[in-house]
Amino acid sequence: MKKSFVNVLIVSGLTLLSQLIGYLREMIFAYYLGTSLSLEAFQTAETVPLTFTQILISAVPLAFTPMLIREQKDKEEKLIHNAIFMFGIIMLFISIGVFSFSNVFVRILAPGFEGEKLLLTARIVTTLSPNILFLSLVAIYNSYLNAKKQFAIPALTALLLNICIIIMQLLTKANVKLVATGSVTGGALMFIVTSLYCRKHYGLKLDTKKVKIKSINEITKSIFPVCIISTFTSLNLVFDKFFASQLGGGAIAVLTYSYKIINLPVYLFVTSVTKVMLPDITRLLIENNHRKLAQLIRKIMAFCIAGGGVFVIIMYVMGEWIVEVLFGRGAFNESDIISTVAVLKVYAFGVSGMALNSFFQSISYAKGRYMEPFVPLLVQMLIYIVVCQVMLERWGVLAIVYGNVIASIMATVVWIVILYRKYNINIFQRMNIE
């Protein structure tokens, strides 16, 4: 376990670096574009490929990594070849579909977009479509590396995407059409570096002779239910844009800027804790060591809740200063700062819930209960939609934020009940598991 916590610290540091580079990217956008039409077109266009890739990026490490760990006992590596082959073909066809019908996807995602804004967004979606293939394959390779307890390389390669975007921003003064090209370049580099590393250090080279219907069926039965669950999580991004596009006035940009800041603590908790601890959680479940599992869950919950509380305090004391330092220059004016800070202060209350919900899902996947997260996610989505539908006209963009926060807290409550009923873990008292 000590080695796992060392890995947590390493990945936390790399995740922090990744988030800082991400902030630099948003600072450059804010300087050149503020909350303009061009920026909202880019932010919305990004959501289309991200919706598809996020499904795999979220689902594959959580569902596929435990499968690869179990396979290690047999000293065989058949599953990874089947996964690369199967998802490579599926995501290639999806990329072609998005490329061909980008205009349709934009109309569904942002019904409030018209004229120039609609056309620009569709053009950027077309440019970004190859990332659906590149980033999905990277997720497959990263799950393989996680099973090998190699977490640093996935975290390092993740930096390439934003670095390429930043370079293109600086070269073109944030011309969003060309920045999209930089994003695809970054996705391609992530795939090349990750695949070459796996080949050099672990001898992993796609072998189509190992592709078998039996293995594909095994992967399908395990990963596709998780993909369905991850779809619910990804739909949050879609609904955010859907509701915000109807408000106009930079609502999408304000949401995106504030969410980038919120991403720091969430990704620190989720990436550094959930992914690193997943192999240990899987082994504890295989060994039926419920006592240690209960202790681990309690520690991680305490860490997430305490960290979320600290973040709330920081946002209320320093939120305005943070937004000014990150974005308060160039085209990003005083009105944009005020709007972003207001959204940020509400979002802060959802950090613990967002992190815990992701962690709880990993327990279900490690146990092989792939559809178990469906109920809390369904509750989360329904509450979010109801809040937005009822309060959007009255509260504006804050209705979207309140919807997300309230929904994530209620989903956490559902997870606590599941832990108690299905795993005999009561977080409110010391466990006494035989």
From TrEMBL:
Highest taxon above the source species: Bacteria
GO function term, MF aspect, one: lipid-linked peptidoglycan transporter activity
Coarse class of the protein's main subcellular location: membrane
KW RNA-binding (keyword) present: no
Record-level GO cellular component terms: plasma membrane
Segments traversing the membrane: 7-32, 52-69, 81-106, 118-139, 151-172, 178-198, 219-239, 259-278, 299-317, 337-360, 372-392, 398-420
Subcellular compartments: Cell membrane
Biological process terms in GO annotation: lipid translocation; peptidoglycan biosynthetic process; regulation of cell shape
Annotated membrane topology: Multi-pass membrane protein
Entry keywords, A to Z: Cell membrane, Cell shape, Membrane, Peptidoglycan synthesis, Transmembrane, Transmembrane helix
Name under which the protein is recorded: Integral membrane protein MviN
Native species: Roseburia inulinivorans
The organism's taxonomic lineage, starting at the top: Bacteria, Bacillati, Bacillota, Clostridia, Lachnospirales
Gene expressing this chain: murJ
